[in-house]
Each structure stands twice: as structure tokens, then as C-alpha cells.
Amino acid sequence: MKALDVEARVDNLDAVLGFVDEQLEEIGCPPKIQMQIDLAVEEIFVNIANYAYQPETGNAAVCVETDAAQQTVTITFTDRGMPYDPLAREDPDITQSVEERQIGGLGVFLVKQTMDDVQYEYRDGMNILTVCKRIAAWEGQA
Amino acid sequence: MTVNQNKNENKLTYAIEGRIDTKTAPELEKALEGALEGITELVFDFAEVSYISSAGLRVLLKAQKQMNKQGKMRILHANDDVTEIFEVTGFNEILTIE
User: Fold this and answer.
1) Are B92 and B83 in contact (CB under 8 A)?
2) Is residue A142 within 8 Å of A68, Cβ to Cβ?
3) How many CA atoms lie within 13 A of A94 on its CB side?
4) Chain A residues within 8 A (CB-CB) of chain B?
5) Do residues A140 and A26 make contact, with C-beta atoms less than 8 angstroms apart?
6) Cα distance between residue B10 and residue B33, in whole Å
7) Are B92 and B86 in contact (CB under 8 A)?
8) ipTM tops 0.85
9) DSSP string for residues in A98-116
């Protein structure tokens, strides 16, 4: 298990993605799954950066755990910002027409669609969002 | 991300390379601002797009809303991974993806 603690700013997105990708490359994660995980990481980290501490700033911790036996990657995002459960938000209606579709609300929906499991809890003053993805064709030794 | 723009009378084509994400999507949005005046055909060539996040989808949705008022918009050559993102978000139903 490895963790990165950074200031929750959009400018740090590349550092967060670099950190996550490094772990994924170690286990030989297929590019398609890596892209989906990068997408989830971007959507979640950017949400924390944009909303968690507004108007102030604070840190976010990103923890990556790989499980060879289960063939899963679990990524946990922790912040001490205002309590916010992104999963409580209603999914956008993807059958709506262009005119009806709202610009926004797609990020968390994408996370739910591309990850195998997404959990949120608020504990000890922290927002803890955990995503889990099964890795087919696991190659590495974790 | 790099954006190559080609205008031919009322047709405007953007050939995009790289990632359309939180950091780069605003550049695309800015490129589109004011550029759509008088345009009846807007084309995005996605052959070299490797990644799109919700920030990029928002820019496409905004462009589609604008083009519905004045013409057509098409997205060409999206790769399988990007196409899947369009599918899970229902964007394949509201955009013209060829």
C-alpha cells in the first residue's frame, strides 16, 4: 500500500495521476483499465480540489492498494473538507436530448460506470471515498 | 493536447491530439468561443485523442447545443476507449459519432 498526500489543487492532478500510474504499471495493468482508473482518479481528485475546502485549501490523501489474490486495485481518497457524499447525488438522465442535458454532473457518474465498486463514508471528520477495480490479465507480483 | 484548426467557408474542423481533461478542456472551450459564428458544419477529428474526461464531455455538449441552433456537428475517428466513454454517458445518442 502506498499513499500520497498533496494539496488538493487541480495543478496537482498530474502528480496524483503519475503516482497512481506508477503503481498500475508495476502490476502490468492493461492500458484500457489504466485509462478507466485515470479517469476515475481525475474526476474524484478534481471534485475534491474544486469543492472540498472552498474557499480555503487543504490536503487530499490518495492511497493505492493492489491485491494480487483478488486481482483488484483499490484507491482511497481522503480529505478533511466539508462533508460531502458524491454518491448521494442523483445520476444524470442519459436518455435526455441535447437541449435537456445539463452541462455537469457527469464526473461522478463516470466513476460509478467505470469502477466495479465505489463507497463513501464520513468518519473522524474525513470524507473517505474508495473505488475498486478488478484487473483482468493481472501480470505482476504485488 | 494540441488543436489544429481548419476553416473552409462555413465548415470548421478541429483535429485534436492527446488528452482532453480537466487541464486541457478549457483550451478547447476557448478555441471554440467566437469561432462558431457563421459555421454550419463543425467537425472534431478524434483520431489522435487518447483520453476524454467529463471536462471534455462538457465542452462537446456545449458545442452541440450551439450547433443545434445553426447547423451540424460530427465527431470522427474516436478510438474504442473514447467511444466507450461516449456510450456509458449516453453521449453516443446525442452527438453524431462516425
Assistant:
1) yes
2) yes
3) 17
4) 10, 13-14, 32, 35, 38-39, 42-43, 46, 92, 94-99, 101, 103-104, 106-107, 109-110, 113-114
5) yes
6) 16
7) yes
8) yes
9) TTT--SS-HHHHHHHHHSS
Answer for the pair A47, A64: CB distance below 8 angstroms, yes or no.
no
Cis amide bond preceding A55, omega within 30: yes
- Is the CB of residue A107 less than 8 Å from the CB of residue A49? no
Q: What are phi and psi of A103, to 5 degrees?
A: -85, 105
Query: How many Å apart are CA A52 and CA A58, to the nearest integer?
Result: 8
Burial of A10 (0-12, 13-18, 19+ CB in 10 A): middle
C-alpha grid cell, residue B66: 450551439
Using the Cβ of B64 and the Cβ atoms of chain A, whether some distance falls under 8 Å is answered with yes
Nearest by CB: A35 against B22, B51, B65: B51
Query: Which tens digits make up the pLDDT trace of A24-82?
Result: 999 999 999 999 999 999 999 999 999 999 999 999 999 999 998 889 999 999 999 99
CATH number for B13 = 3.30.750.24
Could you give the CA distance from residue A37 to residue A16 in angstroms, rounded to a whole number?
12
CB neighbourhood size of A137 (10 A): 9
Domains of chain A by start residue, with CATH: 2-134 (3.30.565.10)
- Segments forming the whole domain that contains residue B44: 2-94
CA distance B96 to chain A (A): 11
Phi and psi for B89 in degrees, rounded to 5? -95, 0
Q: What is the pTM of this model?
A: 0.93
